[in-house]
Amino acid sequence: MTKNISIKAVILAIPFLQMSATAISPALADIMADFPHISANTITWMVTLPSFTSVISALVLSRLVTFMTKRTLLMIALGSFLIGGVVPYFIDNIYLILALRAVFGTSIGFLMSLSPDLVAAFFDGEERASMMGNQSAAVNLGGLFFMFFGGILAAIHWNATFLVYLIGLPIAFWIFFKLPEPKRIKHEHKGKNSLPVKVYILLGGVMLFNTLFFSLMTNASFMISAENLGDTTQAGEVLTFFTVGSFLAGLIFGKTYGAFSNYTTAFGWLCAGTGMLTVGLSHNLTLIVIGSLLTGAGMATTMPSYLIKLSHSAPPKAVSIAFAYTAVAAGVGQFISPYFLGIFNLIFSREIGRFPILVSSILLLLMAAAIFVSTRISKKEMVELS
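User: That's the sequence. What structure does it adopt?
Assistant: Structure tokens below.
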């Protein structure tokens, strides 16, 4: 029993690091001020570039895991986390920092893919389901940690924010000494079309959702700074409450899913859309915090609901592949977020900040309605068939 608790704890330390890329979000406005010759979109790469490289590394990992141990891959990931995360503290060249952020992103891709794999390897049945929920809470607890301390360090100087990634060092030692290697499973590849169409539709939903909610991460700091609604520390606090909402929603996800069942995904989109709309329409910091909290709750409700749907839709031997593709879809969505919403900025001649958040909120609410209708139709068809 003690050994089982120890394994659970060390496995939950892995998702704790997954939302760490947004730790520097509160510092974006200060970075832009120190590099006035660099475009705002390039500055936002500090947050979005890791999402892009995490996609590439997640795809690479699907091959590496067939001949390398998970412990070895975890050590590579944590080494990349420390190098790409901490070294930028010592550098004042924006392009070198971006290159290191790309390295940092590879570690996130590895961690996002290995985390559910380890849960599946060590746990079964209700214990596995429980651990999946705990992982969601751990992701958001880590996000809370990184956003909160990232904001505090950003108030000292923007480059001090990178010191928050030193937390990866004790976690690396803990995993090295306490996590056993799980039993190896033979990976079978039976052609390119091993996943049904429904899985790809769900992955498209994951990508779009990440594209829309992530605009809060890349635009809130600019909005608060440009409109004199608060300083860097307060921008960090707003984003911290996003993670508070995510953490709390993750803890009660089991009950939420029990209450809403197949409609949980639509409910998650609705929460996120309502939260983003509150942020986009508010000029009061307290209301912005509430909106951020709701958006976080929506994210922590939507993403686990997609994982459950994917686990039911994919063939048993392809579930791990579907989870890896989920990390890819989420990473792509977050990376393209400023470019996708930038199209609306160009069309309506607007700047980054409040407007992209409003656009995202409208699209989130429209999708919530569409998913609700789709779920209702599917449920009705199932009843008729039975």
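The radius of gyration is 20 Å.
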